[in-house]
Amino acid sequence: MSRGAKRAATREESEETRQTILRTAEQLFMEYGYRAVSTRQIADACGLTQPALYHYFADKQTLYVEVIKENTGKTQSAMERIVRRNEGIAERLRLIVRYLYNTTQHDISQMLHDIQHELDPQMRELLNQLFITGLIAPLASIFEEGIQTGFLRHPSMGGLDATNAAYLFMSMLPRFLSRPPLTVPEHGPSHASRHGLKIEQAEMLVQVLLYGLAEQGVGERHQVETVDSDHTL
Amino acid sequence: MSRGAKRAATREESEETRQTILRTAEQLFMEYGYRAVSTRQIADACGLTQPALYHYFADKQTLYVEVIKENTGKTQSAMERIVRRNEGIAERLRLIVRYLYNTTQHDISQMLHDIQHELDPQMRELLNQLFITGLIAPLASIFEEGIQTGFLRHPSMGGLDATNAAYLFMSMLPRFLSRPPLTVPEHGPSHASRHGLKIEQAEMLVQVLLYGLAEQGVGERHQVETVDSDHTL
DNA sequence: CCTACCGATCGGTAGG
DNA sequence: CCTACCGATCGGTAGG
């Protein structure tokens, strides 16, 4: 084999190793958190020695930042693709929930905690911006459309503005306690698909976000209970 | 001073020191997580040397477990008191949100992460049970009442069962990104209290949970979209 | 409740 | 990409 061929192969392998490190680090960081994952764990899982990592990434923090950049980039692409689809608000929200459930099994709040508490202020600011422009903004654009078209309640009528709706949406995603929070209720001994009630988790979540838990037009009267503010005189 | 008086004072001081450690450890653990808080940090914040902690608690894990026990116990009392109040479902939920916002500024999902990943299986099981009986159960009893009285949509009609509703409720609580997710929208240059729209965060959250973001009876038709299951044949 | 100290593990570097 | 190694910090113990 010529030197040229050998070097090309080495370059490819090097890039492959880099990708392996990124994927492995992502899994570990997202499951256990930045602090709890050691550089030796990552190296072991890649079949490398720990110092070898420092050939590919300057330090642990840089590796973490690259992981988040990669992850956020992919998610942003997928979300913008979904946002532009020719579907209703609800359906596009369902698609986003399914995408996030399938790709990131982790709790996103852990990632945010690490960004706030374990990183340099500079990196923190960078990743916060990535999070907002990559995840919050596409989501908010859907909610904004819903508000403009009158499908969603206007902020001045007791609704949420688009950005806050996006944050609330994100906060509803995590599986609580590592066990799925939204299991389908089994009523009676018959199979779940009996009454045509097998509602998927993603759909259930969007249902609640859009229409709430209350029976329509029944029970207590609080619907758009606009608080008269000037109590305090 | 007699020996007896001195010894009594010492015993009181000892208990006081123990409480100081518990309060300090709670703040640190809840803000930064189990792993990120060192026993030396806790000791420093209490004005003690690090080995002194081991006079009061067998080890770091035991201290953490005691913190959670104390915390959960107080919260359980408060929640059960609120549950028994003579108020509507929505108002009691608002009171619970306010209580949790005022007492625990932290993200509860971090506590759950630490319980799942940083503790012995035995302690994990214990604290999971405490979490369920202390926080989920009281909340679920409110939702169950709402379902029984017909105020909340029945699980067989596309609603959530009481336990899952409780989990969802808890997951909606955290302030996202350490910044409040539900800021009140300011519309126009006028003061926020202009149109009588100053809706408090706790109330806003309960509003969304109960009635959703959608305009009532407007836009897409998905209200109780019961999925016909036998698509796959 | 202190001083002194332990073994283990951490992130990172030197040098090849 | 490895071996060898560094200083710092961790949770915890000994002994008083």
UniProtKB/TrEMBL annotation, chains A, B:
PROSITE patterns for the chain: HTH_TETR_1, HTH_TETR_2
Protein name (record): TetR family transcriptional regulator
Organism in which the protein naturally occurs: Dictyobacter aurantiacus
Keyword DNA-binding: yes
Keywords: DNA-binding
Sequence ranges assigned to domain HTH tetR-type in this UniProt record: 15-75
Chain residues forming the annotated DNA-binding region: 38-57
PANTHER family for this protein: HTH-TYPE TRANSCRIPTIONAL REGULATOR PKSA, HTH-TYPE TRANSCRIPTIONAL REGULATOR RUTR
An example Gene Ontology molecular-function term: transcription cis-regulatory region binding
